[in-house]
Design goal:
This protein has about 90 residues and is mostly beta strands. Helix content is about 10%, strand content about 30%. It has a single domain, classed as Alpha-Beta Plaits (2-Layer Sandwich). A hairpin with a 4-residue loop joins strand 2 and strand 3. It starts with a strand and ends in a 23-residue tail after the last strand. This is DUF2129 domain-containing protein. It holds the Pfam family DUF2129.
Amino acid sequence: MFAERTGYIVWVSDVKAARNLEKYGSLHYISRKMHYAVIYVNADRAEETMKNIKRLSYVRKIERSYRNELKTEYASKNPDKTRSYSL
């Protein structure tokens, strides 16, 4: 149903030119202050897309985002005490 997506952080030297990254994938966020952009691309074509992005003159470096590999479901060993404080 949904294609597997991979996130990349692209460090750029020109923020205005970073808007052109939309044609390579889904441009999620552009930081004007820190000069980076977050882009999501299909995982099956990620390597060839990154090679094309590296060739752009305004791209300084590319880092892979590990957000989808982090555990986002948390379990507490202690019981929930919020119910005992209710009125």
